[in-house]
Amino acid sequence: MNVTAIIMFFLFVGVTLVITVWAAKRTKTRSDFYAAGESIGGLQNGLAIAGDFMSAATFLGVTALVYSTGMDAMLFIIGGTLGWAVILLLVAERLRNLGRYTFSDVVAFRLERKSVTTMSAIGSLAVAIPYLLAQMVGAGALIQILFGMPYEVAVILVGVLMTLYVMFGGMLATTWIQTIKAVLLLVGGTILGLGVMSMMNFDFGALVTAAVSEHPKGSAIMAPGVMFTDIITIISIGLAFVFGTAGLPHVLMRFFTVPDALQARRSVAYAIGFIGYFQSLIFIIGLGAVVYVTNNPEFLTADGSLIGGTNMATVHLSKVIGGDLFLGFISAVAFATILAVVSGLTLSAAAAVSHDLYANVICDGDSDRDTELKISRITTLVIGLTTMALAILLEGENVAVLALIALAIAASVNFPVMFLSMYWSKFTTRGALAGGYAGLATALILVLLGPTVWVTLFGFDTPIFPYHYPTLFAMLANLSCAYWFSVNDKSDRAFAEIESYDAQWIRSEIGPL
Amino acid sequence: MLSQRDKEILTNKDFDKLVTIRRRVSWSFLLVLLGLYLAFGLLSVYFPEVLARPVFAGGVVPFGVVMGYGILSMIFIATLVYVLIANRYLTPLKRKVIAAAGKEQ
Fold first, then answer.
1. CB-based contact (8 Å) between A75 and chain B?
2. pLDDT digits (tens, 9 = 90+) for A192-212
3. What is the pTM of this model?
4. Nearest to B48 among A204, A223, A280 (CB)
5. Percent of chain B whose pLDDT exceeds 90
6. Most B-contacting residue of A78, A197, A505, A513 (CB-CB within 10 A), to test interface
7. What are the DSSP calls for chain B, one per residue?
8. What is the residue-averaged pLDDT of chain A?
9. What residues form DSSP beta bridges with A306?
10. Per the CB < 8 Å rule, is B52 touching A223?
11. Arithmetic mean of pLDDT, A370-374
């Protein structure tokens, strides 16, 4: 039990609950609930966006990857930042100009609303729910180690808090919680990075030398190939980061919280600053963990492995740098990170049900405000309860597959459909549906037949599909189906959709007049 | 069908300029950045020794780490330059297009 961690954690929870009460009073309309009343400024939204992306997976997972593989983690570090350049240069401003609350609005701008919205809502849910579950299971295990509380209690605590934030505080509460957490995380990361560098007298070469001499793999960590050796895997990982980021529904939703395209652009620019800065710290923190944690008996179990697994490398490093006080701070920040990210995911899943499916598909765009808000709150509650139950059932399971599915679907369903609807005039409803569902099916089938599920989960000897990451093939399936079905669509509807592209193009460039 | 106002916007020279500048800047920046990332991936599979080689003879920091940080800096610079171009040229052009469209109504 770490007293500092517990005090800091309760402080954070206290502040977030006050924010939720405050936000609940201001959340009356749909725009309040889904988009924080479109009132968030560029800098704050940039922080919140960075917060959404800097999840426990980045903070602990990518550091752990540096800790165990060294240079191979650079693929994640660069890719994770580059995905934001794609959003800035191609997506952000158009998204704000064309949509209202979710990216489905953008896809449905000139295509047939009901069928296309259904497909992109399924895409959103297929990303948000597995990702949410992966975070919950990881969170339970992490909190168990950090705070010494039982797994079930940890999962229920995270589930109850996230449900409260979203149900009552909507996007306004979620944004503020995300903002606070982003600041805490940036401060924590900076102290970790500075701590490592100051112990090395600010000599990066000395850090590299020390890491090579401490790491069991020695100089191999300063060369590629410890973990990733084939080009198909590397391209799939790259595509998942570069285009999957622009397909994450909870990230895309953030662009509707600002008043206009100018603020949307400003948001991403700030976000890239924060994310890039944080990513460049990750490599230093990871190497620091190699130097100060790998052979430190304090952090090793009897058989010589790291207490709590490699994901705990950062947390152990914090103890070396700042003792129990800083360990407590970093533990609380890790918890806050998980809470904030699961809240954003829950909200995006709730919006996919209430705004996309209920309001736009069932009510055909003409829904009653109070009923719609009630449905989004009920959905939030259902998602909260279901993910809590599933996370408890999945205790100790390998959930890497869930995060894998989420990013693969984001890159091979959501992003291509959104991108083509914005940039390709001959894209039709038939093409969108064929491409979207083909991408979804390919991603799911290949994950099922791949090593993670077929071998690890089902226990077969060899996988039918040899690669862990399906993104390259699933994206190709989407794009080729989208192309073929669009150019061969000679229906009247297709003709009308192609004709209305120019109006959409103007709107995407200059916004609503 | 395009409204009369949209037809006029499409023939507006400022709109044309706005679209052309944005297209050129966005895609060229993106292709450079994606190309660098792809180069990193290709090097790490086919020429790992290039990434592992120290940047300075006798030094310890390998080229791959420098290249990684180099690409991160390029992303920063591209972001900064895009925002500067957008603020300096794109936003005023957009305002002109909107003002012209408003007048014609």
1. yes
2. 999 999 999 999 999 999 999
3. 0.93
4. A223
5. 82
6. A78
7. ---HHHHHHHH-HHHHHHHHHHHHHHHHHHHHHHHHHHHHHHHHHH-HHHHHSBSSTT--SBHHHHHHHHHHHHHHHHHHHHHHHIIIIIHHHHHHHHHHHHHH-
8. 92
9. A300
10. yes
11. 93
Tell me if A357 sits within 8 A of A137, measured CB to CB: no
| A157-196 per-residue burial string, b: 16 or more CB within 10 A, e: under 16 | bbbebbbbbbbbbbbbbbbbbbbbbbebbbebbebbbebb
CA contacts within 13 A on the Cβ side of A161: 28
Report A:193-222 residues touching B (Cβ under 8 A): 204-205, 208-209, 212, 219, 222
Residue A1 has a pLDDT of 59
Reported as a single tens digit per residue, the pLDDT across A66-80 is: 999 999 999 999 999
Backbone angles phi, psi at A433, to 5 degrees: -65, -45
The stretch A335-344 carries a mean pLDDT of 90
C-beta separation of A55 from A131 below 8 A: no
pLDDT at B15: 95
Task: Give B58: exposed, middle or buried? Use CB within 10 Å, 0-12, 13-18, 19+.
Answer: exposed
Q: What would the two tokens of residue A200 be?
A: 């090395």
